[in-house]
Hints:
Blueprint: H1 24-30, E1 41-43, E2 47-49, H2 53-71
Antiparallel strand pairs: 1-2
Amino acid sequence: MEFPQGKHAWMIKVGEKGQFVIPKEAREMFGFQPGQTILVLADEKRGLAIPPRADSQRIMSQIIEALEQEGE
Length: 72
């Protein structure tokens, strides 16, 4: 299947423990390293997303700020 430039898709299997392996091509593309912590976001309607590492800190800051504002 042909995808537009910059768009990718992979089929992966979920193991018995609920784990899955990020394909090598994707790990290399996004610079994931062994032992690295990644941010996983979820939306019940849209599914899971793993944002690029460079965006993770900004996203977490926005989430924390929104939660703090809810508590006020």
